[in-house]
Specification:
Helix content is 39%, strand content 18%. With 217 residues, the chain is an alpha/beta fold. It folds into two domains: 31 residues; 171 residues, 3-Layer(aba) Sandwich (Glutaredoxin), CATH 3.40.30.10. Helix 2 runs parallel beside helix 5.
């Protein structure tokens, strides 16, 4: 083997050493993207395994038109289910979600917040409050979809017997449930919960293999 051939072989090996891992990562992402849900075990919230697909297209926008699920495609999205009556506990949880998102700085745009109203009884009364939430998607859960939709979220909670409880959920860019946070029943602010959510999200956004820029057309 002459010197020139050895040089070429060495160049090929160097290129392979750099490209190989990237190619393997790309192939894995294409075939099994759930592997890279950006969620480590031992985080503050409860990890949902396996991830549960959620059809957000069954929800209604506030104008009673079908919600366009593509608006959240490619984003990490916090989902919160609660009544349109929205008491202090409800307001506290929405506050948590908005603050958790905002505190991510330049990565905040990779995260969305979805508030699912489980009824529309007090919708008119709630509208002044809704007008202030320009950074939150607010939708209505249709009566005909309520049972199945709430059961889906209940299924993801290991230690929460309450159907449609006020836990906070997280769906990945592929719109699958991957984590939930038990917010408790007290209206007082819980610094531990807020800190834990921020820490988890910071890790997720730092790790994110599935990027927010990769959205459905």
């Amino acid at each position: 083997m002459d010197a020139q051939t050895k040089v070429r072989i060495n160049i090929v090996l160097v290129i392979a050493a750099f490209i190989g891992p990237i190619l393997i990562l790309w192939l894995t992402l294409k075939t099994t993207p759930e592997v890279f849900d950006g969620l480590k075990k031992g985080g503050y919230g409860e990890k949902i395994e396996p991830a549960i697909p959620v059809d957000l297209g069954k929800l209604l926008a506030l104008d009673n038109k079908q919600f366009d699920r593509r608006l959240l495609s490619g984003f990490w999205t916090y989902v919160y289910l609660d009544s349109s009556h929205c008491d202090q506990l409800c307001k506290r949880n929405i506050f948590y979600l908005r603050q958790t998102r905002i505190t991510q700085g330049r990565h905040a745009d990779n995260v969305k917040v979805l508030w699912v109203l489980t009824d529309s009884e007090k919708l008119e009364t709630l509208k002044p409050e809704i007008a202030k939430l320009t950074d939150v998607f607010i939708v209505i859960l249709p009566e005909k979809e309520k049972s199945a939709f709430l059961d889906l979220f209940k299924k993801s909670q290991k230690n929460a017997p309450r159907q449609g409880s006020r836990s906070i959920f997280l769906i990945n860019p592929n719109q699958k449930l991957v984590r939930y946070y038990d917010t408790g029943n007290k209206a007082e602010l819980d610094p531990k919960l807020a800190k834990g959510m921020r820490k988890d999200l910071k890790y997720i956004l730092k790790f994110k293999i599935i990027k927010a820029a990769k959205r459905e057309k």
